[in-house]
Design a protein that fits this description.
It is a single chain. This protein has helices at residues 3-17, 24-52, 57-84, 87-111, 116-144, 150-179, 181-191, 196-210, 217-220, 231-238, 240-266, 272-296, 298-305, 307-327, 331-355, 362-394, 399-429. It is mostly helical and 430 residues long.
Amino acid sequence: MTRENSNVFSRFMGSVANVEPNEIKAVWLSFFFVLTLMAAYYILRPIRDAMSSDWTDAELSTLFTATFVISVIVTALYGAACAKVRLSRLLPGIYGLFSLSFFGFFVAFRVMPEATYLGKFFYVWISVFSLFQVSVFWTLMADIFNKQQAPRLFGFIAAGSSIGAIVGPALALLLVVPLGKSNLVLISAALLLVPIPIIGYLEKLKHRELQHGDESLAEGYGAKLGGNPFSGFWDFVSNPYLLGIGLFLFLYTVISTFVYFELKNLMTDLDSDTRTQIWSGMDLAVNTLSIGTAFFVTGRLNTRFGLAWTLALVPIVIVVGLLVVALAPMLWVVVGMQCVRRAGNYSITRPGREMLFTVVDRETRFKAKSVIDNVVYRGGDVISAWAFTGLSTGLGLGLGALALIGAGIAGIWALMGRYLGKRYQKMQGQ
């Protein structure tokens, strides 16, 4: 690229996405990093979700419980690894291990295609992977970019997540019939190897071009965090700010689980291929909607109105949406509600929530964040899944009544977002 073209591109990035010239390389690498991760996951997601309609609410709640238990174990192992293993080996190793595990599933599906227990284990492992791989990515982002850069840049980076989440289900939609589900798992395993070299280069850019690292390259990426392997759990339960983030995420999972279970039940009478196509179609719609918002709206929303309103915006929209669902509890109304909810989360709420971790220290960022992102999230899944089962199966409540309960929960979620945003702004000033 010539100097003139480079200057034009820099001005374009500055005017459209509010990216400074010295941030362009790091932003685009981060963009393609998360794009690849999400494409790998979204190839697998429709396969996983199509399986759920074959199981009862109680069976699915049991799988949610198993996912929570395994998430606790994986998070504890990750905390121990953070204390003992250099980050230069730990972070690439995580994606390498997930890639290897999916290659193992590819072999297992070819050998035992009809094994019911294999499908359930696959469902649980994909659920663990879906949160853990994104949590590690955003932990790295909060470490690469500082608290002044995050409000401007995280929305643009999150657009890469949305594009990857379009590429993944598009591939699943097009290739599931000619290639079969097992070969899609193999493609996902290969994609997870792509981000490994990007991690080291991003850390170098942090010190050489972003120039805000407080430590040298050897002391940062080449060092171990040390400390108590389980300090992330203690930091979470003893820090009111982190507890607030955990509660905010917990309320989000309650809404998500309620909507997910209703969609699963409404699709019970459809065949497996039709379910896969509907889930893939929702993924495409969600992430198409997310891209424009993340590219052009999120950063400006943060800088103009502040994080307090940014975090409260989507919950307020969800309150209105759930009231609509209560009045018209039909499949396509719930599908539309799911699309709006997820698009708002990916493009606005998730980047905003990740900004909250830029004002904490590095050990907290790597250890406590994984507890919140994985253990709290999956704990919320378990509690809300069994609560839904009790309300729907035990008390016999219909979708309309459940939507009204969800609207009340979403209102509390909005208030929690306002509180966290104001607390973040106070800590950022300090």
